[in-house]
Amino acid sequence: MSPRSDPGALSRPDDHIDSPQPSGDASVTQPRLGFVGWIRFAWRQLTSMRTALLLLLLLAIAAVPGSLVPQRSSDPNGVTQYFSDNPDLAPVLDGFQMFDVYTSAWFSAVYLLLFVSLIGCIIPRTKHHFDALRARPPRTPVRLARLGGYTERPLAEGETADAAIERAAADLKRAGYRVERYELRGEPSVSAERGYLRETGNLVFHTALLGVLVTVGIGGGFGFAGQRVVVEGQSFVNTLAAYDSFNPGRFFNDANLDPYKLTLTDLDAVYETENQEALGQPVDFTAEVDIKGRDGEEVVDGQVKVNHPLRVHGTDVYLLGNGYAPTITVRDAEGEVVFTDAIPFLPQDANLTSIGVVKVPDGMPEQLGMIGFLYPTQTTLDSGAYASTYPDLVYPVLTLNVYSGDLGIDGGTPTSVYTLDPSTMEQLTGGKTGVDSIELMPGETQDLPNGLGTVTFEDVTPDGQPDAAAGDYSQSVDRFASFDIHRDPSQGWVLVFAILILAGLLVSLFIPRRRMWVKAARRPDGAVVLEYAGLARGEDPGLDDAVASFADRHGGPAPTDAPETAADPAKPTT
Amino acid sequence: MTLDDISITLVYSAMAVYAIAFIAYAIDLARRSAAATAAADAAAAVPATVGASAVPVAASTRGASASTTSAGVMPPVAAFARGNDGAAVAYGRSPSLRVGVAMTVIAWALHLAADITRGLAAGRVPWANMYEFALTGTLVITTVYLLVLVVSKHDLRFLGTFITGLVLVLLGIATVNFYVSVVPLPPALQSAWLIIHVFVATSATGFLALGFALSVVQLMQARRESMVASAKAVKRSFLATLPDSATLENLAYRVIIIGFILWTFTLMAGAIWAEAAWGRYWGWDTKEVWTFIIWVVYAGYIHARATRGWRGSRSAWLAIIGFSTVLFNFTVVNLFFKGLHAYSGL
Ligand code: HEM
């Protein structure tokens, strides 16, 4: 059966297992000389099953290095670390784009080739499939006995051959087959085919893969991702300037930012207190927020939790981190406040030992900097060092090392609010200075060295609640939330294509595509028998059973079957 | 005794019974070799006259070319008793095989009880850290095996040695190296997706494990068949009593596509969960990378099955590589690679 004579045939690459063996046709194996011939040859190679397979395997291999070496996209700090750990190797790897594997030229080349191959594969198949959908099931083969699940049944008494075939056609149609009656040399037959959905599913699957690639590649460019730290009681307005860091997509226009205002009213952290094996493990983080629209819109309450982003004004707000933001006040020698602010301290371990930096640029004879350690539940180790034993505020202690000199923030070069460069400053407390570090609990004030003034660790417990003075520190320090705010217009589309991928896959792997024939064949002795046979079009483990059970229903149980079924002619035939 | 202690006791009991099952299956394999030898001796005594009637009706749909068997060397009884698995020597079920299956069922029940008590002890689904993944994952492997025994037309009891062996080793490693006591779920795991995503991933592993076992036997069988075909001296091994390589390949394919679909779902569910938990649906985190690699390798396997020149042993190798990546993802990636999926609990 050559594909040309068979309209129902599948159009698949030449080296597909169901395609006819190459016939030695010159155009397949040896390209004719000339440009067009070469192009056609190359195209055939690219769209062959073998190429698709090799490209798939290559894609799997190409993805491996990105899991061995830190990637800039997912782990930028890891990359920095890698460079300092392997100063010789890292630049070489970087030359091969090993830190940006998934956007590298070579990784992109593999998947782009794969998708070109895919397009070259699905276009002809889709066209062919549309034709096949409209074509009649093919002529009944002359000899059915060679085909799958071949079986015979005697013609029922009193039924004509034509009537039996008519009935078979109706039954097959009801079973979802497309049917066509044929008659050859006085032998009526019905040819039936089903499972076109299998090929449809396969095409939907492959097309949806393409859909995912295109939406991710293009749609993703219209979005943005930004990060912002917000302390309890503070607000943030969704504008470019308000973000701590911001990554726009290629086509993103910041005029599209909707300037809504988000206020963190409360950050609630719950830690395990009962289970001795897990004391202090985080159990829940909830950020309570207020959202206020641009002009006078109603304020709405919202909640952001891990696993429960808040979707407002076209953006998704995620809670990706939290920690303490002690409020620190600095007064000068006259007792005037020169600085007061809640400073986010970055957590260093599971018990939230946190590090933060206080910068006092004005109001003092020289600029002041302080590096602080916050221990939410402080304890003293045998070595004399401090540590935190529990992440909640049971016995909070803040230690500060004071530096004076040039903070380096006037030069115009941006500096991180989380780091202090002490190289141009003089250390006044801690370390080798011989002066003890400043050590404070909420509500306490201490003198700065050299009579510079005082520093206070404010107790921010709301009025009317038990506070530090009462020995309860649980609300004495504010917390901060670090939010990720995203907009990704492609996301919904990716989901749609993903569902299509899954649906296409299910259909194409589980719906059998098969042909079935029933023929009223005349034997040399003049007797008419009903012949049944099938043909699998692709993987179809159930073919033989399907033919047998159809024959049983249509022509009655096989006479050679186990005696007990044969002895039961009253068995219903449908 | 706490629920968790009960669970642990049940795990050790299950392991003991699995060990008995493993030994029984191994004895059965030894008896298969003996049966194959006996059949060959009997055939040597009886002139080989049964040739034509003994050609097996290979159950394969298309790749029947590989169903070469040592048809000529079979005693008539064997040819008569044989099903359509294409096995060269009929074998049936030895007492040790029956013991093996019975013990597997008992071990499975203990294992299930262990898993349920662990879940009750934790007050949540028992698959939130590596110990629990292993506990539930191995349970799924046994479940899939037993399920296939019930459902499949082919008798796959011979895979018991592999299945109980694998489960035993994994359970052993899990209890000795991965055990952690019950602790509350970190916020990132408090999600319905923990139930769905992880369970589906684990189920996929069960099917892919079975596909791996079948592919390994397929390769061994194919090697034996080619030796038979080239009329080399073939060692009388248990393989003679097993289905031919084409049948094994079809069976492997069928369980692997189920595993593949489950894996596809795992990947997508993971992306949806990642979006909620980490703020992006795909970020090439190490675990994501390996989930993707596994998916692509199995897509390659499915393609190979449909590519001329790749069906047969080559595609079987891909199934084996595929399952190696699954195991790699579960062990090495969990334990040694840095990433957001730091949920081993270790
Ligand atoms: C983007 C990469 C690709 C992936 C991930 C992929 C994946 C798959 C999967 C999972 C299947 C089995 C499910 C089904 O039949 O629908 C499949 C089948 C198939 N693919 Fe692909 N494919 C890719 C590219 C290609 C290309 C480039 C071609 C053409 C050369 C191709 C041709 C086929 C064919 C003909 C089948 C049917 C196999 C059969 O008859 O069983 N695929 N593919």
Automatic annotation (TrEMBL), chain A:
Pfam families in the record: ResB
Primary location class: membrane
TM annotation in the entry: 51-69, 105-124, 203-225, 492-512
Amino acid composition bias (Low complexity), ranges on this chain: 557-574
Domain ResB-like: 49-546
Superkingdom of this protein's organism: Bacteria
Keywords tagged on the record: Cytochrome c-type biogenesis, Membrane, Transmembrane, Transmembrane helix
Official protein name in the record: Cytochrome c biogenesis protein ResB
Source organism: Agromyces salentinus
Cited InterPro entries: Cyt_c_bgen_Ccs1/CcsB/ResB, ResB-like_domain
Region span, Disordered: 1-28, 548-574
Compartments in which it is found: Membrane
Protein's membrane topology: Multi-pass membrane protein
Secretion signal, residue range per the UniProt entry: none
From TrEMBL, chain B:
Signal peptide: none
Its membrane topology: Multi-pass membrane protein
Entry's localization field: Membrane
Cytochrome c assembly protein domain sequence ranges: 127-341
Domain of life, source organism: Bacteria
Membrane as UniProt keyword: yes
Transmembrane segments: 6-27, 99-121, 133-151, 158-180, 192-217, 251-274, 289-304, 316-337
Keywords of this entry: Cytochrome c-type biogenesis, Membrane, Transmembrane, Transmembrane helix
Name of the protein in question: C-type cytochrome biogenesis protein CcsB
